[in-house]
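Handoff note, outgoing to incoming analyst
You'll be picking up this chain. Sequence as last confirmed:
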Amino acid sequence: MSTADLLYSDTENALRDSVRRLFTDRCPPELVARAYDTQSPAPQDFSDIWRALAAELGVAGLLVPESLGGAGAGAREAAVVMEEIGRVVAPVPFLSSAVLATVALLRAGDTETVSALAQGELTAALVVPLSTAPGDSIAGASVGADGLSGLVGSVAGAGEADVLVVPVAGPGGLELHTVDRTAAGVEVSPVLALDMTRPLASVGFSSAASSRVGPADSAVAEALQTGAALLASEQLGVAQWCFDTTLAYAKQRKQFGRVIGSYQAIKHRLADLWFEVGAATAVARYAADTCARGDVDAATAAALAQAYCSGIAVHAAEECVQLHGGIGMTWEYPAHLYLKRAKSDQLALGTAYRHRAQLAQLVNLPAS
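Most recent structure output, in case you need it:
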């Protein structure tokens, strides 16, 4: 019986360092903040960051087998990338394309589109609301003689995707189809989101042509579970940055002739946050490890990670804003970017309440 290893390997540490260096060079906070620039006539284009991440470091194919042109890695390596994405609130479609869409396509039996995704030639989006939790029913679009029809709201990554991966209600059950985003009969309408670094869109189909991949029930379920497990690592990255930054600030900011970190009330709040972030580290890495090994505890670990880490990320971001005082409230300081990502992630792939309910079922805990 294998046991979980919560420590990074040398390979995973090297991957983390490479991703962190790339983000340090190409994704500074002032660039990320441009996602909220309402004075710009067009949305800020961050595609060059994703191309560098996907093509230069090859992270788009981490979950794709080598036989299909991928890296042949697993959820542990993907979790490393997600953690670094959280540390800088990177506006890249890794979760929507390299995780959700890729896993769904792989499990449904696709080979051609997945290979293009692994090489960074295409990006994709799984057409389900971002709020969909593992185990939720998928309505999907419908298919008829003239093509797909239907409307799906709050889809992550649809606006910048080349390929839409669509669960479709077919005559024999849920099917997975691929659709070109620019095809006739496809309308992608941006939706105003709290976190504009992970844009959402409504996707409408009207007699749109599509290609059937395969059965979708288990494929979409596994994609959502993998996404939930890895999202915890992004939440960990958000929380870790907020804690590290706030701790450093408390050590150098002075009020009344003393650094604010010397006050007992500040010490206690930072000590509590340190403990919470440490616990979130163990929970997130356990979720990624069980997912990578296909462990029987994978569903339980993913539900536990989301039930815990989503709240910790929000708490850490709130403490970051508050303990920075006036500067934490300013638009120029990046704390608001982390609070928005944390709040958005708290609702993504199921709320903490939804995951606690799922966790109760998984461990046979009777309802009170």
